[in-house]
């Protein structure tokens, strides 16, 4: 496999700017077939960006699932994902701001960030597991925006 099939960069073509000198987030392939990524919203960075920590897990870490409408993806909002530049749509951005206040330090599974959307193999594998991902969650949060 070449690097383009295992690592993907977030599309920045329709994004609001991130600060200079910040690397663009690159997904690393999942190590184990039963693993998944979870995220936690951290306190904002000094420059005011939402800070998200994304981590691969294979154990029974408790987490919330988010079910939400992706909405319009033409305008993207900058965040820091593991300290690197990334962008999310407006609806998810608004949820992440609320999650930072209401669920500090708690883990989430959010498909658009926890699945490498540019890797068809990973996306297919994770989509097949979505039933168990939602079933194993502590709860499912439905967000309309």
UniProtKB/TrEMBL annotation:
One Pfam family hit: HET
Listed name of the protein: HET-domain-containing protein
Listed InterPro entries: HET (IPR010730), HetReg/Transcr_Mod (IPR052895)
Domain Heterokaryon incompatibility: 63-145
Taxonomic superkingdom: Eukaryota
Species of origin: Plenodomus tracheiphilus IPT5
């Amino acid at each position: 496999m070449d690097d383009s099939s295992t690592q993907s960069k977030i599309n920045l073509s329709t994004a609001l700017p991130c600060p200079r000198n910040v690397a663009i987030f690159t997904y690393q392939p999942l190590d184990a077939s039963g693993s998944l990524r979870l995220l936690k919203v951290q306190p904002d960075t000094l420059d005011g960006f939402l800070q998200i920590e994304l981590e691969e897990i294979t154990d029974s870490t408790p987490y919330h699932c988010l079910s939400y409408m992706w909405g319009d993806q033409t305008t993207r909002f900058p965040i820091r994902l593991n300290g690197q530049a990334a962008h999310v749509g407006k609806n998810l951005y608004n949820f992440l701001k609320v999650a930072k206040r209401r669920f500090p330090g708690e883990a989430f599974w959010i498909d658009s960030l926890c699945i490498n959307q540019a890797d068809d193999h990973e996306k297919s594998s994770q989509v097949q597991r979505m039933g168990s991902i939602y079933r194993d969650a502590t709860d499912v949060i439905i967000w309309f925006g």
